[in-house]
Amino acid sequence: MGYNTDGLTFNTLRRGGLARLPEFKNNKGETAHSKADGSDWSLNDWAVAVTGELGEACNVLKKVRRGDLTLDEARPLLTQEFADVVIYMDLLASQAGIALGQAVMDTFNNKSIKVGSRVRLAADDWHYAEEK
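Above: the chain sequence. Below: its structure as tokens.
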């Protein structure tokens, strides 16, 4: 477990993200949310935040594709943008009442069954399902 994160979990991400919302400031130094839990933003607002960050990552990849940057040069930018996507995605899921970690495990495992793979995810690691 860990994946170079020292064990970061979806639960930790969720708790930290929600705790930070009332302290989050925009670029003008103003509080970004009028409600501490982020419910002042609609699901559409949160979805726009997710896709905005994904768009920023795509813009970096476009620059790699056309030769403005090498992948090695772009990696720090991509790292930040991919992380922003995950952070905003979890906040969107939270506002929708979805436990993203459980949803990812369930969806991954259901897709594994559908495609005939024995690989399954559990909260602590991945494993191979027993053959029938």
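The chain has a mean pLDDT of 94.
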